[in-house]
Automatic annotation (TrEMBL):
Higher taxonomy: Bacteria, Bacillati, Bacillota, Bacilli, Bacillales
Keywords attached to this entry: Signal
Signal peptide coordinates: 1-25
Positions of the Spore germination GerD central core domain: 62-173
Transmembrane spans: none
Biological source species: Sporolactobacillus inulinus CASD
Matching Pfam families: GerD (PF17898)
Classification via NCBIfam families: spore_GerD (NF040801)
UniProt cross-references to InterPro entries, sorted A to Z: GerD_central (IPR041262)
Protein name: Spore gernimation protein GerD
Amino acid sequence: MAKILSFLMCAVLLFNLAGCGGQQSQPSYEENKKMVLDLLKTDDGKKAMRDLLKDNEFRQAIVLDEPTIHKTIVQTLTTEQGQKLWRQLMNDPDFSEQLAKTMESDNEKLLKRMMKDPGYQGMMMDILKTPEMQQQYLDLMKTKPFRQQLDKSIGELMATPLFKKQLTDAIVETLKKEQEKSEDNS
């Protein structure tokens, strides 16, 4: 940003020196400002600004520092006009998707940290224990899609070799106990 201002001030100074010739009077701030703005509105001024913005060194020089970005975002979010702008942006599906993608890994890390936090866990348990949430879970369990998924999951579980072995072992153990009881009663 400082380079842009320096560039513009140099342009105005050169313009003044070339245009004024032998005059000693300096133009006022308002005159300088008007000349700079007029210069920027010309095709040459616009082209010069585009060329400057294409220059990597210049672009790196005008990158805003973190405190400036923070201050700008806070000021933008707290004004009524800024809040209206953000609401409009968030209603744009493309913008929302891009924003979500850029924040996805950070949000995932934050959620994982929060899930390990005992205070957060306690709040989640309190929410899950509320009668309203329990009723929602019961209503969900009564739905046909939930029951179909549950049937599918149980079927897949029962088809696994490990489950079959555990079931067989449990049946054999139960039969042995029943046989021992009947031998003891005889």
